[in-house]
C-alpha cells in the first residue's frame, strides 16, 4: 500500500532482463503498474487501451473460446474478463517464460480452469494445434517490432485454419515502425475474408480486424 501511495509522487521502476524481449521495466505510476520494453508499452498502458478498442469492435455474445498469441503481462486477459465479461475459455501462448512469470506474480494472470497459459513459440503452436477458436488475437512483438515470420503467408494460413466458422481475428501492429500488411491482405482477399484496418489507434497502433463467415 505504501508503494502505491508513493507512486503518485515518484514512479517506482523495477528492471527485469529477458532473453527474448531485452530489458523490461515494471513501473508503478499513479497507483497503477505497467510493463514496458525499451521502446514501447507491453501491458496495462496504451497497449491495453488499443486491444480494448479492438475487442469493442466485435460482438462476443457467441464467442466461446479465444486464442491469444502473445500474452505480454496479460492485460488482454484482464480486458476480456473484466471489461467484456467473457467467461469462456482463453488459451494464451507466450514464448518468454520471464513474461509469463511477470504476468503471474505482478498481475495475477495465471492458468486456471478456463485460462490456459502455454510457453511456446506462436509459429510452432499454430502449426500443430487442432483446436478451433471463435476469436484469435495476434499481438506478437519483440520490443516494438512484429517479427517477420509472423507476417508471412505460411503463418497466416495456419492461423486462419484454426478459426471457427463466423470467427474473428485481431492483429495488432504499429504505424511506426510501419508493419507491412500487404501479404496478409492478399491472403485474406484470396480467402474472401472481410477485414478492416484501424490506423493510429491511441495515435500509434495499426489494427487489422478480420471477420470469417464460412459458407458451406
Molecular structure report:
This protein has 216 residues and is an alpha/beta fold. 28% of the residues lie in helices and 33% in strands. The chain has one domain (45-211): Vaccinia Virus protein VP39 (Rossmann fold, 3-Layer(aba) Sandwich). It has seven helices and eleven strands. Strands 7-6-5-8-9-11-10 form a seven-stranded mixed beta sheet, sandwiched between helices. A four-stranded antiparallel beta sheet has the order 1-2-3-4, sandwiched between helices. Strand 5 (65-69), helix 3 and strand 6 (89-94) form a beta-alpha-beta unit. It is globular.
Main sheet attributes: strand count, strand direction, barrel closure: 7 strands, mixed
**CATH-assigned homologous superfamily:** Vaccinia Virus protein VP39
> What low-confidence regions span 5 or more consecutive residues with pLDDT below 50?
1-10
Radius of gyration: 17 Å
Summary, kept brief:
The chain is α/β, with parallel strands linked by helices. The chain has seven helices and eleven strands.
Task: Walk me through the topology.
Layout: H1 2-6, E1 12-18, E2 22-29, E3 32-36, E4 41-43, H2 46-56, E5 65-69, H3 75-83, E6 89-94, H4 97-107, E7 115-119, H5 122-128, E8 133-138, H6 153-161, E9 163-174, H7 182-190, E10 194-201, E11 205-211
Parallel strand pairs: 5-6, 5-8, 6-7, 8-9
Antiparallel strand pairs: 1-2, 2-3, 3-4, 9-11, 10-11
Helix pairs in contact: 2-3
List the main descriptive attributes of the protein structure presented here.
about 220 residues; alpha/beta; Rossmann fold; 7-stranded mixed beta sheet; 4-stranded antiparallel beta sheet; 7 helices; about 30% helix; disordered N terminus
Amino acid at each position: 500500500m505504501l508503494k502505491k501511495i508513493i507512486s503518485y509522487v515518484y514512479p517506482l521502476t523495477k528492471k527485469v532482463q529477458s532473453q527474448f524481449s531485452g530489458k523490461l521495466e515494471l513501473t508503478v505510476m499513479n497507483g497503477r503498474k505497467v510493463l514496458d520494453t525499451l521502446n514501447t508499452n507491453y501491458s496495462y498502458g496504451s497497449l491495453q487501451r488499443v486491444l480494448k478498442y479492438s475487442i469493442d469492435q466485435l460482438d462476443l455474445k457467441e464467442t466461446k473460446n479465444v486464442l491469444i498469441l502473445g500474452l505480454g503481462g496479460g492485460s488482454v486477459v484482464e480486458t476480456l474478463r473484466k471489461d467484456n465479461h467473457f467467461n469462456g475459455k482463453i488459451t494464451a501462448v507466450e514464448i518468454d517464460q520471464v513474461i509469463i512469470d511477470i504476468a503471474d506474480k505482478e498481475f495475477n494472470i495465471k492458468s486456471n480452469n478456463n485460462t490456459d497459459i502455454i510457453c511456446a513459440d506462436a509459429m510452432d503452436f499454430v502449426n500443430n494445434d487442432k483446436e478451433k477458436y471463435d476469436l484469435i488475437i495476434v499481438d506478437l512483438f519483440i520490443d516494438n517490432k512484429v517479427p517477420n515470420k509472423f507476417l508471412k503467408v505460411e503463418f497466416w494460413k495456419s492461423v486462419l485454419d484454426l478459426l471457427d466458422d463466423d470467427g474473428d481475428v485481431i492483429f495488432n501492429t504499429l504505424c511506426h515502425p510501419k508493419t507491412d500488411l500487404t501479404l496478409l491482405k492478399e491472403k485474406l482477399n484470396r480467402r474472401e475474408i472481410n477485414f478492416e484496418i484501424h490506423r493510429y489507434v491511441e495515435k500509434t497502433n495499426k489494427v487489422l480486424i478480420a471477420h470469417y463467415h464460412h459458407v458451406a
